[in-house]
UniProtKB/TrEMBL annotation:
UniProt name for this protein: Sulfur carrier protein FdhD
Alphabetized UniProt keyword annotations: Cytoplasm, Molybdenum cofactor biosynthesis
GO BP: any one term: Mo-molybdopterin cofactor biosynthetic process
Location (main, coarse): cytoplasm
Taxonomy, superkingdom: Bacteria
Hydrolase recorded as keyword: no
GO cellular component, one term: cytoplasm
Role summary: Required for formate dehydrogenase (FDH) activity. Acts as a sulfur carrier protein that transfers sulfur from IscS to the molybdenum cofactor prior to its insertion into FDH.
UniProt-annotated catalytic positions: 110
Annotated GO MF terms: sulfur carrier activity; sulfurtransferase activity
Source organism of this protein record: Pseudooceanicola atlanticus
Location(s), subcellular: Cytoplasm
Gene3D superfamilies (UniProt xref): 3.10.20.10, Cytidine Deaminase, domain 2 (3.40.140.10)
Amino acid sequence: MSRDTSFRATGLRIGGGETAPVTRALPEEVPVALSYEGSTQAVMMATPSDLEDFAVGFSLTEGIVATGDEIAELHVQDHETGIDVQMWLAGDRGAELSRRRRAMAGPVGCGLCGIDSLDQAMRPLPRVTARPVLDTDLIIGATDALRALQPLHDETRAVHAAGFLTPDGLHFAREDVGRHNALDKVIGALARSGTEAAKGAFVMTSRVSIELVQKCALAGCGMLIAVSAPTARALRLAEEAGITLVALSRNGQAEVFTHPDRVTGEPHVA
């Protein structure tokens, strides 16, 4: 399986009274199996980059491990039909996972793949007590800063990105065809570098849906900034979880929907 992140396709551009050949880069999406103790736990369609970060972030946000240190070994293996990320867990984590194992198959647009009950879909979240305080100007410029760190999007115009914002700028930008995959990659990168998610904000190029709020809460991050609007359910979930939800961050403006006390300056509270 190739690790290329894009593919050059040829076609015809039509309309405007003429037809012309066109060449366009398209993002690759490949099946990525996430396996523990030799057994596959999930298969997600993802961009084949930063897969170690993806695996660690997924393990954390799915509750498979509590810290990145509980993954004792991690190996990325290429196969003809996809990529298998093999992980072995420390202590009793492997036995705990065997007791709760569920089969999961994840299309790229889905962030709640493999959930088999309504209770699991709306699982209780820890209340976030992190106190990152970020300036209004920094927040409203965050999505522009992220946009400047998206080489795959520049090439394909078809992938999402996530990053981590602190008072000294944007870090750990990651791209993927799935918005939830991109966020998992950032969470994994933070864990692997020993950086606390409580010290900053996640920044997203997408709308805010409930799985992004869930991942934010489970990572212990107190703020989520996105270029598009949230769903109503995501807004209510952010309010309950104690997360500052900043949306519609574009063109020098943003709207703060929940917990505006983490924003300095004069935010617009919807």
